[in-house]
Amino acid sequence: MVDDLPTRMVYAGHRWRITDTPTRMRESVWAAPREHQHGLYGWRFQATDEEGHAVVFDVCEADDGWHVHHMWD
Q: With 50 labelled, which of 14, 16, 19, 60 sits at a CA distance of 20 to 30 A?
């Protein structure tokens, strides 16, 4: 995170650089039981790996850290 925005991450053994403007997603978009939604938020962004492969990620923050919720090629 830089200035509260995601800029890079490591996922599935690859380094990813965020290559668009991240969209913040709030509790209402996550399909999780209400008791697990307290404080849950996330981001949707396009990221590109070191080989130039770009995908879109939905990531969410939970009590134990950040998780990839979904990704699209």
A: 60
Instruction: Report residue 44 as tokens.
Output: 């949707």
pLDDT digits (tens, 9 = 90+) for 30-58: 555 545 544 557 899 999 999 999 999 99
- Amino acid identity of residue 7, one-letter, is T
In angstroms, the CA 40 to CA 60 distance is 7
Cα–Cα distance measured from residue 45 to residue 23, given in angstroms and rounded to the nearest whole number: 6
- Residues with Cβ within 8 Å of residue 25, at least 6 apart in sequence: 41, 42, 43, 44, 58, 60
**pTM: predicted TM-score of the whole model, two decimal places:** 0.80
Tell me the β-bridge partners of 65: 62
Angle at 70 between CA 65 and CA 71, to 5 degrees: 115
Distance (Å, rounded) from C-alpha 67 to C-alpha 56?
14
